[in-house]
Fold each of these.
Amino acid sequence: MSEPQFNEVIHAPMRLRICGMLHSAGEVEFAAIRDMLGVSDAVCSKHLKVLAENGYVTLDKRPGNRNGHDITWVSLTDEGAEAFASHIAALQLIAAGMA
């Protein structure tokens, strides 16, 4: 892991929760993320778009069996996993009064 580095993009509460969920679970369905956050599709999509534009997540649409609609799966990229770990390390330093 690189040096602990505070990350403004990841630090937004919804995006921090998304990254934490993806870090723990690997690949997660869009609907599960939306439900965990307790937000609308639009709000969830907005936060995922920011993470994707920064190269932190991938969005993979696959054929689904729910009324013929595709299912979007979300996962952290290697860059996203590194940025999340670095951000968490920075938060730990802040919490310990060392930063």
Amino acid sequence: NRWFKCFTAVDFFNQINMLYGTITDFCTEESCPVMSAGPKYEYHWADGTNIKKPIKCSAPKYIDYLMTWVQDQLDDETLFPSKIGVPFPKNFMSVAKTILKRLFRVYAHIYHQHFDPVIQLQEEAHLNTSFKHFIFFVQEFNLIDRRELAPLQELIEKLTSKDR
């Protein structure tokens, strides 16, 4: 569990936060009134604490809620203990999987809604490398249900194919 916290949760959170930060001028309340990944996938926000029932919100608002929620999870010593010898809670993998599932949604949103700006900013290689690393990791340890990956399934197959 310690390797997961140190390597994965924090690393992927920082990477997607940075990548999204470069396209915030393009992802606005007006351009993205709903958090989506193409026309078939719409995401509603609920954190189970402050917002118990899923709400429809803009992509920037959803991503703001998400990044705040993930940071709160990472800072919670009962979920992600930083002291050696302190055990991780029994629900650790469940929380970690939820974090990764939700971070995936930001990748999916960027690819579906903002790929042109990514190309304009010449960040395509960085986005692809970051996403490929993310996907290899979540697939290796079966951390995101295959159905959740559907919005980017074609891209995932291209990035993870053996002859690439």
